[in-house]
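Example 4.3 (complexes with small molecules)
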Amino acid sequence: MANNEDKFKKVISHAKEYGYIFGSSEIYDGLSAVYDYAQNGVELKKNIRDYWWKSMVQMHQNIVGLDAAILMHPTTWKASGHVDAFNDPLIDNKDSKKRYRADVLIEDYAEKLEQKAQKEINKAAKRFGEAFNEEEFVATNARVIGYKEKKAEVLSRMASSLEKENLQDVKLLIEELEIACPVSGSKNWTDVKQFNLMFGTKLGASAESATDLYLRPETAQGIFVNFLNVQKTGRMKIPFGIAQTGKAFRNEIVARQFIFRMREFEQMEMQFFVRPGEEMKYYEYWKEERLNWHLSLGLGKENYRFHDHDKLAHYANAAADIEFNFPFGFKELEGIHSRTDFDLKAHEKHSGKKLQFFDPELKENYTPYVVETSIGLDRMFLAVFSTALQDEALEDGSSRVVLKLPSILAPVKIAVFPLIKRDGLPEIANAIIEDLKWDYNVFYDEKDAVGKRYRRQDANGTPYCVTVDHQTLEDNTVTIRHRDSMEQERVAIVEIRSVVEKTLSLKHWLNH
Ligand code: ATP
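Answer. The structure with adenosine-5'-triphosphate bound is encoded below.
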């Protein structure tokens, strides 16, 4: 465990040190659970997005893309069920105007009871010294028993009230316990109400006429509301899919674990529309396809597992997560959901528009069923980055930090070095860059000894380093050094492209 925690800390600090991820607005001490992708991070993220996009859209004749707006008509979220979901109980103090989570206020109170009991125990321990029997004291001391019983009673009442959605009783409990606002000290509370995880915002300038909107909590609804437009204008026949990548926003209450759980994040989703009754066939198909996509990147089969849901969301008739072995254990990376006709039917009802498909083979209209694949881009970034980061022991007894990113995802593909800064070597290195930059993200470095430059590129995940030396002046050859094997080979300048392109092509990765 300590090892994993250590590893996770290394991942976070490496991501910062090498320009992958910074905390948002760090000069102002950051914003919790919001992150910025830096010069290398933005490339890695883009490459992951492209890898997903190409494998889903470009590789499937019956899947097309979409880029719907983040802001959507507010009724969308009524229809989807989001307005009534994402509940956390909130309460405001009327004097300080501060907002709290009602359950947290009560839990803090319970924690104080626990601390009071602990104080009694500490006092007794001091008094009795060596002879103190803590177990016996806790079991017999009236005060300690009283505090502990009260704590259990408070927590169990809260749990049962929340379970029954009895928010009045949650407020009553806060009043009975005489919980005061930590800021104003007053017990002047509003009623408890449910807090929605969606971020609200306003459309329009004047306060009276402004419309309440939400920042989308998922990209999927942008696809559903465009189902008919895409189907008709693209003349799509069922089964077909619509894919989309883009930002989603959730006002997560517990937001920890770096970019695993963010308030602003990016999703890559695909909704596959099928004939009713055929959804299980496609559900199984997409489970396998998506796992194969993950495996194609070579992060290790043992790092993935399926978790089938026993408890299904209101819209689903089957659901599974692809879990990944993150530094903090196996956690959801992607969801595959059989969403039935819930969303299209709900939008049909709320919009009054028919969202159906006329099936020319069956000669009938129906509301398609939907199988969804939904993956968090940031979580995928974390999966790739944390697995790639390795501390490797070398044969000569030294070690190196190497970021073994799949080369198709690496931010910089080729670093080009002149061995020294004179004798015309920089000019040749720059000419090589000029030629390669049309196809690849390349990087020039002439600072420090070449060994040090190799190490820097290892830690940055660059799969190839090309070094120009004095022999180049004679025979137009260079060395290519491979990141993972550290092997070097001598090739003609005109052959650089053919050496690297083998492992930098989509076909190489998706097709093996
Ligand atoms: P979790 O149970 O971890 O909160 P979820 O089941 O709510 O996730 P979905 O609504 O199924 O997630 O969203 C699909 C995908 O979006 C998830 O598999 C995950 O990769 C990603 N995702 C969801 N919430 C976040 C978040 N707060 N930060 C980063 N990625 C997220």
